[in-house]
Design goal:
The chain is mostly helical. The protein is built from 10 helices and no strands. The termini are far apart.
């Protein structure tokens, strides 16, 4: 009878792989299990080898991002929601910097690409809602706008979570998103209020870095 797999071991191996990458150390089977009670065979038991491990590492990054985005409630103000989703994206990058570095390494396929796409779909749905209530122009492409919004968050995450800028730079997200959404048709003053309220917990990020 096959021995049951321990989810904690799988999670540990994923976290250690991401950590080794961040520290610019070789990611080897021996390095992954060094200092643990797990044998090198665990890489094959849980991932069918190193390629499977890399796929799982990338997938775990998107899994944690999806969980973070799921905590953002849907309100009656979809522009607020778009900003809140951007804040959640940044919070995920700052709390999981090791995994964040690996998420967008297209050198390894994802275990479930559709699950990763679902994270962008949250932004698309919020943009659709904003358009449906007249906050954005009717001819705005929601996917394009969501992608532009994501690009802003991704740029800030890369520069702060894994780059040279201090956490204070996260505040740039407010004027950047406001400019984007005003360009999509939103009223400037109303947009500024919505974005600022959605971005309100960005001041909590500093202790995460």
């Amino acid at each position: 009878m096959a021995r049951a797999k321990n989810p904690a071991v799988r999670s540990m191996l994923i976290d250690r792989a991401a950590q080794l990458l961040r520290e610019r150390q070789p990611v080897t089977q021996r390095g992954l299990v060094a200092g643990t009670e797990v044998s090198t065979m665990a890489v094959y038991t849980y991932f069918d080898g190193m390629d499977g491990l890399w796929r799982a590492v990338r997938q775990e990054g998107f899994t944690r991002l999806a969980a973070r985005l799921a905590q953002v409630p849907v309100t009656k103000d979809p522009v607020h929601d778009l900003a809140a989703l951007g804040s959640a994206y940044l919070a995920n990058a700052l709390t999981n910097p090791d995994l964040y570095r690996v998420m967008f390494d297209a050198g390894f396929a994802l275990e479930d690409a559709q699950a990763a796409d679902a994270t962008l779909d949250r932004l698309v749905r919020a943009a659709d809602s904003a358009r449906s209530i007249g906050r954005f122009e009717a001819d705005i492409d929601s996917l394009d706008l969501a992608t532009q919004s994501w690009t802003i968050g991704h740029g800030l995450a890369g520069l702060v979570a894994t780059g040279p800028l201090p956490p204070a730079a996260l505040g740039y997200g407010i004027p950047l998103l406001t400019a984007l959404f005003v360009g999509a048709g939103d009223d400037p003053r109303r947009c500024a209020r919505s974005v600022a309220s959605g971005w309100q917990f960005q001041d909590r990020f500093e202790h995460l870095t």
